[in-house]
Amino acid sequence: MKTITVGLAALLLSTAASFAADAWKEAEVNGTKIYTDANGMTLYTYDKDEKGKTNCYDKCATNWPPLKAEAGAKADDEWSVVDRTDGTKMWAYDGKPVYTFIKDKKAGDVAGDGVGEVWHIVKAN
C-alpha cells in the first residue's frame, strides 16, 4: 500500500509541474526570444499591474485575456500564480501578470506590443 501511495504522490507532483510547463513556451519573433501561451500566442504585461496583483478586469480582460493557471498550479522559477478577484488564477512572469491580446490572430502576431504605451511583450531571458 505504501508503494501505491508514494507512486500516486509522485504522479500528482509531476502532473502539477506539467501544468506549468504546458502553460507557456519560448518562441522567437523578429529575432527576439519571447514567451507565448501553449498555442504560440504572444504574452504581454500591463504597466498598471503590480507585482503579484492584476488590475485588468471587465473590458480590459476581454481585450487582454489573462493566461489562466489551473487550480493546483505551482510557481516555477520566474513564473508564479496570481489570484484574481473572481476566484480564478493566472500566471505571472517575474511577478507581473501575463495576458494574450484579442487582436493577435495567429501565433507570432505582436499587435499588442506598445498599445497605449502600457502593454509590452514578455521577453525570455
TrEMBL record:
Domain of life: Bacteria
Keyword Methyltransferase: no
Record keywords, A-Z: Lipoprotein, Signal
Gene Ontology biological process terms in this record: alkane catabolic process
Keyword Acetylation listed: no
Database matches in Pfam families: Lipoprotein_15
Signal peptide: 1-20
UniProt cross-references to PANTHER family, sorted A to Z: BLL4220 PROTEIN
Protein name according to UniProt: Putative lipoprotein with Yx(FWY)xxD motif
